[in-house]
Amino acid sequence: MQEQLNERRRAAEKVTLIGSLLDTVLGVLKIVIGIFANSAALVADGLHSLSDLLTDFLVIAVLRLSHQAPDRNHPWGHGRFETVGTVVLGVILVTVGGLMAWESVDRLFAAEPPPLPTWPALVAAGLSIAGKEWIFRYSLKIGKELKSDLLIANAWHSRTDALSSIVVLVAVAGAMMGVWWLDALAAVLVALMVGKIGWDLVTRSISELVDTALPEERVKALRETVLSVEGIESVHSFKSRQMGNQSLLEMHLQVDPHLSAAEGHYIGDVAVLRLKDRFDDIGHVIFHIDTYDDQVYPEDSLPVMPPRTEVAHHIDAALSRIIGENPDYELTLFYHPEYIDLDLKVSPEMDASVKRSGLAAEELERHLIEQLGPLDWFRNLRIWLPANIRG
């Protein structure tokens, strides 16, 4: 699992570093050309590109932190740091959108039109659009493949730079044709879209931080996969949540009450393996083996059942009354909230004692049931001979 996380981190870092290199080149290019081409919008767009470097560095730092192996202080891993990083990037997008909208509205209602830019600004804006759109599509593709909301958020941040460059391109072209207010109106619309993207990222990440359940359709598919395992009668108390790119699950698996504890746990392990085989984002899975549906019997309403020592004491007393001895035997208890079933495996010593008493196994079983019958927790008892053959 850790090796997969390391591969995921390296792939995410690669695309982020490529994006940061592109941001540096485009940012410097737009600032220099904007100054000489008399385009304040292009200079601002260049500063916007350079600001993306800060988010790129943030993404790399968060990726390295979130993909560390679990430790003593973070036994569930560090995936939440990726979610927190996505919230930060979402807030940045909302802030950028708000500032873009404010500046665009201010420019739209300016008393005098701004100075007219020259054609090099068109070339720089066109190069910025092409470069940022390419890195957006590349980052978005890798982000979806890795199921990383952080990379997806950073991809959309790159898209905001491409959109702002489109605004610059329209602004320059419009200004050169005399429609000086066109860039401001377009910028307002772009700013609203940027803010909406940031808001969606923030709300989705916050829902993850407060352990919101996975979508209903996904939970249904997970439950169906568990129920397909032989030996599982039902699944209940099913809980799900998201942490980074991993889905965490907790569930109660109901099996036949007469299975051994080892077999019940093995069935649970099979269910986990089947989940991880079908869904590649399954992280930790905690399962509890039930021999009854504990949702039907709330814990605060369960009757107190006797422990093994008390049950054995009643059986010893009954055997003493029936055969006059208290021989050795193997006792298996099957607890239910309303009763206990008993399996009593006869040892060779007990078999000899029963034969000396002149009773057959069926008679001994009947007498024991009669003796234990008045106990309010007792329901049934079975006797098993050494060779599983009744005398």
Task: Tell me the layout of helices and strands.
Blueprint: H1 2-36, H2 40-66, H3 79-108, H4 120-146, H5 149-177, H6 182-209, H7 216-227, E1 234-243, E2 246-254, H8 261-278, E3 282-290, H9 308-323, E4 329-336, E5 339-346, H10 348-357, H11 361-372, E6 378-384
Parallel strand pairs: 2-3, 5-6
Antiparallel strand pairs: 1-2, 4-5
Helix pairs in contact: 1-2, 1-4, 2-3, 2-5, 3-5, 3-6, 4-5, 5-6, 7-8, 9-11
The strand order across the widest sheet is: 1-2-3
Give me the secondary-structure category: alpha/beta
Tell me the CATH superfamily of the largest domain.
Answer: Cation efflux protein transmembrane domain
Which bin fits the share of residues in helices?
A: 55-70%
Helix segment count?
11
- Pick out the low-confidence regions: none
Give the biggest beta sheet.
3 strands, mixed
Tell me the fraction of residues in β-strands, as a range: 5-15%
Question: What labels would you give this structure?
Answer:
GMP Synthetase, Chain A, domain 3; 391 residues; 3 domains; Alpha-lytic protease prodomain-like; three-stranded mixed β-sheet; 13% strand
